[in-house]
Fold this sequence. Notes:
There is one protein chain. Helices cover about 35% and strands about 30% of the residues. The protein is an alpha+beta fold. The protein has one domain (about 5-95): Alpha-Beta Plaits, CATH 3.30.70. A four-stranded antiparallel sheet has the order 2-3-1-4. Strand 2 and strand 3 (about 50-60) form a beta hairpin.
Amino acid sequence: MAEPTILHAIFTARPGEGDRVAALLRDFAEIVRAEEGNVVFDATRLVDDPDRFFVYEVYRDEAAFQAHIAAPTGVPFNEALQQLIVEPSSILTFLRRV
């Protein structure tokens, strides 16, 4: 059986943009969760710093993750997100189950 592709993304909303980032993430989460190869897409805000976001993602396998990356819905999401966050893009960390 293929290993799942697991990652987390972190990013920081620009001052005053946290609620817009949260709304963008809520809408995008619904789209991603409907993707055939998505297992988990959990978007959260830090309690102590609500402008910081943490997104945990699990895809069935690498092919499912690549399909997610190639999906046309990701382009407008990432373009909108880049305008609202401090970093040039979300910072991705790939993980492996133990």
